[in-house]
Amino acid sequence: MVHHVAITFIRHGMTAENEAKQYIGWTDVPLSEKGMKQLKTGSYPTVDFVIASDLLRCQQTARCLFPHLRVEQCEHWRELHFGEFEGKTYEELKAVDSYGRWLVDPFGVAPPNGESFLDFQKRIEQGIEKILSFFSASVRHIAVVTHGGPIRYVLSRYAPETRSFWEWSVPFGGGFTLYSTLERWRRRERCISLAAVPFKESENG
């Protein structure tokens, strides 16, 4: 028997630190007033279950978008840990040697005291396993409220169309629904189809 399922990945709403162009991987900050307003302008799918990064901006986004559903917290869906770059902007870092090396090879070089892309990738794959464990006869569509990096990774690895990590644009408060089967997910095969989550206001992602 084939079990058709859908997973909607949504990026959290904007924060003041996002507006200031700071790196805020594991830094736990709330949504900004602009971010909260933005979430109320979009149209989101009806889902059966919600999983969210345990960081505040994702928890707030999940509660705003799905107020009638319990939110399962999952630290696997955090953004990349930017280490010593956390809280800083490009302008503050551009003269730092380690930052330059990371910009040249972000998939091979980890930020100082931060997370390598390989460890990030392994963590997101563990997060996918967690999602799959929640599907059941009554749960066929799951929303995952997370960050830009995890969504870009999932799309580059599992979207039907092949694009690189940086070719995917994921606006704040926006995202994508991946349609597939439970069996294809377990075999780690690309999904059958994809649709952008509707939103009215687009932000640089």
Features of the shown structure:
disordered C terminus; six-stranded mixed β-sheet; 205 residues; 33% helix; alpha/beta; 8 helices
Q: Can you walk me through this structure?
A:
The protein is an alpha/beta fold and 205 residues long. 33% of the residues lie in helices and 16% in strands. The chain has eight helices and six strands; from the N terminus they run E-H-H-E-H-E-H-H-H-E-H-E-H-E. It has a six-stranded mixed β-sheet with strand order 3-2-4-1-5-6. Helix 3 (56-65) links the parallel strand 2 (49-52) and strand 3 (71-73). It is globular. The protein starts with a strand and ends in an 8-residue tail after the last strand.
Task: Give a short synopsis of this structure.
With 205 residues, the protein is of the alpha/beta class.
State the secondary-structure class. alpha/beta
Strand order of the largest sheet: 3-2-4-1-5-6
Tell me roughly what share of residues is in helical segments: 25-40%
Tell me how many strands there are. 6
Helix/strand layout:
Layout: E1 4-11, H1 16-19, H2 33-39, E2 49-52, H3 56-65, E3 71-73, H4 90-93, H5 97-104, H6 117-134, E4 141-146, H7 148-158, E5 175-181, H8 182-186, E6 193-197
Parallel strand pairs: 1-4, 2-3, 2-4
Antiparallel strand pairs: 1-5, 5-6
